[in-house]
Amino acid sequence: MALDGITIACITKELTQSLTGGRIYKIAQPENDELLLTVRRGKEQYRLLLSASASLPLARLISDNLPSPMTAPNFCMLLRKHIQNGRILSVSQPGLERVIRIDIEHYNELGDLCRKSLSIEMMGKHSNIIFCDDASVIVDSIKHVSGMVSSVREVLPGRPYFIPGTQEKSDPLQVTESDFSTMLSAKALPAFKALYMTFTGVSPILAQELCFRAGIDSDRPTQSIGREEWNRLWTVFSALLETVKSGVFTPNIIYENGVPKEYACVPLAIYKDNETKRFDSVSALLHAFYAEKDALTRIRQKSSDLRRIVQTALERNIKKYDLQQKQIKDTEKRDIYKVYGELLNTYGYHVTPGSQAMEAVNYYTGEPITIPLDPLLTPSENAKKYFEKYGKLKRTYEALSRLTQDVKDEITHLESVSASLDIALLEEDLIQIKEELIESGYIRRKGGAKKARITSRPFHYISSDGYDIYVGKNNYQNDELTFHSPGSGDWWFHVKGIPGSHVIVKAEKDQTVPDKTFEEAGKLAAFYSKARGQQKTEIDYTLKKNVKKPGGSAPGFVVYYTNYSLVIDSDISGIRLLSD
């Protein structure tokens, strides 16, 4: 669900209750687009995380501290100069905009009492954190926006601060009953779309919820809605606004098949048949909903350089492979040249001097064949010429076959590294992948730099039957699990013909592993591969002892000649992941 105005209102209420009157004790900037304010209020201490990330803009209270850079960025230093030890006067939300304003009182260098404000705008790619003086003039912002980037509003020091118009939407807190139906019916749109296109703070899913509560088909055109139905829609709409005004929120997450699907700060009757979990605070809700998504977004940002290196190398090798395949195709005539030479040596004595062709029977196939001749050469000289062509093309084919296999192996290796980058969840996972790229020659180790310390470990799952299942996060871990971990009865799983992780089911020798565990291991192999999301994926599995590693092969590359197969999906929602 979008971070709509109703959710922002709930966040504002929580921050007002927790932070008003507190003093800003510490200011840090963990990421380029994040701030972390530590606020002391009486005996309590709160950590407020403010994010202007384009993908995950948020404002919430957190319990753990976050690592910060050794040298604070300029924006962080500016805030420390102005508002560190300042007192928070209020936390407010203009209308139902996706903006939170924090007013702060502090003493300047001359000892005069001053007021400043920090505005957190949570508007997707336009998200920002803007620091203003008491005259609403921008002192600085975490992101600078010049006139070349935006013709609507510049966000630069010295410019006046204002909230840009929200696509000419109206503030729902100011609308009257008489205006409500008039404003909506003027738009030739489905009912739910008219709602979120007319009023600020209303997301598409919340608009569908309002239609559902009013008993109106959300896709129904506004022109076909009657007076009684408008009255019902206004009743549920105004009731929602009363909830916002009174601050009575019920933060909850809706789950589908055990996976978070939506969240809201009001009950969503549209999902009445789904599992719902309520939270004591909206910060706890946002942490639960976004923790994994935020981690994946951050790790993708940090892995962008590695992805670019892998993608560039992949594209180069694929072009090389296609060219080599074309060159191999050009050598397909080599065998016919050999036949021409042999037939000329056998039947050439029949050829009349100066002939341009010879008719003969191919004794390999029993079919007639016409052999082109150079009339200036004798039959034996023509035969020699054909044998030379055959020899040249044969040597070219043999050399290209070796080179093509090398390039194909390199493509397979790079695709497996790409799959590892998709799996990576933590920065230490990226460190091990980078080390593999260094040792494979794709990245040059900086002069004097030592080999990185590896702390990443494979995923550890427990099957429904209690069996330990390990999943390699990258090629080094795949080799470690398959060839260097003890277990004579272990089973090995891998998606067929597609880059992915090695999955190991730990078992004793001659132990019978239940079918359910085989299925869950197969699901994990499908999930941690390029086949993730496919409805059906073929998985190869065999005893680990049957898997071999060819000498000199790339990390993660294996061969096996005895295996079973199963076809399964990649839904791992019911398999328990251990934190170790």
Name its key features.
7-stranded antiparallel β-sheet; 580 residues; alpha+beta
Explain what this protein looks like in three dimensions.
The protein is of the alpha+beta class. Helix content is 37%, strand content 20%. The chain is built from 13 helices and 21 strands. A 7-stranded antiparallel beta sheet has the order 20-19-17-18-16-15-21, with helices on both faces. Helix 5 packs across helix 6 (227-246) and helix 8 (304-329) runs antiparallel to helix 10 (379-423). The longest helix has 45 residues, at 379-423. The two termini are 31 Å apart. The mean pLDDT is 90.
The radius of gyration computed from the alpha-carbon positions, rounded to a whole number of angstroms, is 34 Å
Shape: elongated
Strand order of the largest sheet: 20-19-17-18-16-15-21
Strand content: 15-25%
The helix count comes to 13
Low-confidence stretches: none
- Output mean pLDDT: 90
* Sheet with the most strands, sense and barrel status: 7 strands, antiparallel
DSSP strand tally: 21
* Structural class by helix and strand composition: alpha+beta
Q: What separation lies between the terminal Cα atoms? A: 31 Å
Percent range of helical residues: 25-40%
Helices, strands, pairings?
Layout: H1 5-19, E1 23-28, E2 34-41, E3 44-51, E4 58-62, H2 74-83, E5 87-92, E6 99-107, E7 113-121, E8 128-132, E9 138-141, H3 177-185, H4 191-198, H5 204-214, H6 227-246, E10 252-256, E11 259-264, E12 275-278, H7 282-302, H8 304-329, H9 334-347, E13 357-362, E14 367-372, H10 379-423, H11 427-439, E15 459-462, E16 468-471, H12 475-483, E17 491-495, E18 503-505, H13 515-527, E19 537-543, E20 564-568, E21 576-578
Helix pairs in contact: 4-5, 5-6, 8-10, 9-10
